[in-house]
Amino acid sequence: MLGDYGEVYVLDWGIARVLAEAEGNRFGDIDTFGEGQTLAGQLLGTPGYMSPEQVRGDEIDARTDVFALGCILFEVLVGTPLLPRGKAALAATIAGAVDVRAKRGDIEIAPELEATCIAATKLERGDRLASARILADKIQAYLDGDRDVSLRRKLAETELVVAKQALARGDSVDDRRVALRAASRALALAPDLEEPAQLVGKLMIEPPSEVPAEVDAEVLEIESRALASTATQGNRALFVILGFVPVLYAGGIDVPWFPIAVPLLALVVWVGTRLQIRRGITWGIQLSMVANMFIVALFAMLVSPFLVAPAIGGLMATLFALHRASGKSVLVGLGFTFAILGPWILELTGVVSPSLRFTATELVIDPAGSHIVPEVLLPMLGVYVIATMAVAIAMSRSLATVHHESQRQLQMQAWQLRQLVPETR
Fold first, then answer.
1. How confident is the model at residue 32, as a pLDDT?
2. Helix, strand or coil, per DSSP, at residue 118
3. How confident is the model at residue 135 (pLDDT cuts 50, 70, 90)?
4. Which of 137, 133, 125, 138 is nearest to 63 (CA)?
5. pLDDT tens, 144-197?
6. Rounded mean pLDDT of 33-50?
7. CB 212 within 8 Å of CB 180
8. Distance separating alpha carbons of residues 310 and 305, to the nearest angstrom
9. How far apart are CA 202 and CA 181, in angstroms?
């Protein structure tokens, strides 16, 4: 409870004993027990905080309180009890199963406070701190900034040995992680030591031979963001292509299946990108890529494989080859190449009529369609060049932005790491 001026009042003092009293430490009038509560009947106290001599019913003194305070200090620092709760605490207390270092695990606490916990929770009373005042003085000294330099240096040397042993075992991810953490702890404990600083700097600069799974996951996340950005630009390019469909139809290329097939394929492209980006379905981008190949093939069949299709195919191939989710870049290139040249092969084999022919003095392009309207098609070709250039630049800038942000973040992290390591002399 807090008083009017912020002062603290302790309302529950727990169990107190007058040491001069002759009666023993056992009671027999109450027989209730609950986890984390006072145990009475045979003993009086809270399991998990009672000292070994208190559990055994031996003589007690101020060092009994020191044991309880040591358990509380550990719980404050680590967040978990030092001893198990409930009846299991009694057996663990008597057995002396109080291992502060093992119980804290990977949680870092100040070595001075850890040493205080260890000194306060010794199994034998004679090995413990003599009084609660001594324990309080040690905590206050730590809060005042006093540090046990010799203890920290000794712990730093121990951590340095652990780091070197881990590196000597090999360069696996686990060994590298142990070495880096041990070396960084040594540096934090003794910043004036040169060897930990050099080792930490070396470990941060030299990459491990094996890529950690966490790094692969982070790279995948970066690639996913880049893929999302590229897919957005690709869908915009697709809308540009769709915009030319009615213009081509008005220009005389009035093949009936063309204005139906291209929008349907565009829908498949959009669905594929949504499956990849929103749902994480890996084959979504491949579905989108195949649909784009068919769109390129349709333009190659309609307006000659050598007129419009190469620019569209090259743009799309670049787009998909940038991402590993699309598959091997060789297969991506072969797929779009076949989409462009496939109709030409059909022309050479006589399956479809040629869209390109030569005379003695002319190169004649004969696109599919019953009639041609030059007044429409010629301006469209000029707009097509402008649109292709604009889409290519937009895609490139989008990818460059993602790459720039990734590199900037990487360099910022590297800069911050360099600030953590003191310059070696």
1. 43
2. helix
3. very high
4. 125
5. 877 777 788 888 888 888 888 888 887 787 888 888 888 888 888 887 778 887
6. 63
7. no
8. 7
9. 13
Whole-prediction pTM value? 0.47
Long-range contacts of 136-143 (CB under 8 A, 24+ apart): 138/112, 139/73, 139/113, 141/112, 142/110, 142/112, 142/113, 142/116
CA–CA gap between residue 343 and residue 334 (Å, rounded): 14
Picking from 394, 405, 305, the residue whose alpha carbon sits closest to that of residue 355 is 305
Closest CA to 144 of 112, 116, 185, 100: 112
Query: How far apart are the C-alpha atoms of 182 and 108, rounded to whole Å?
Result: 12
In 3D space, the residue among 80, 63, 82, 180 whose CA is nearest the CA of residue 129 turns out to be 63
Q: Which amino acid is at 398?
A: S
Neighbour tally for 412: CB within 10 Å: 10
Enumerate the H helices of 211-251 as residue ranges. 213-250
Count Cα atoms within 13 angstroms, Cβ side, for 124.
Answer: 2
User: pLDDT band at 77, cuts 50/70/90?
Assistant: very high
Q: Which of 145, 144, 146, 159 is nearest to 189 (CA)?
A: 159
**Alpha carbon separation from 187 to 242, 253, 285, 377, 420 (Å, rounded):** 62, 74, 47, 72, 10
| Tokens found for residue 282 | 């890996």
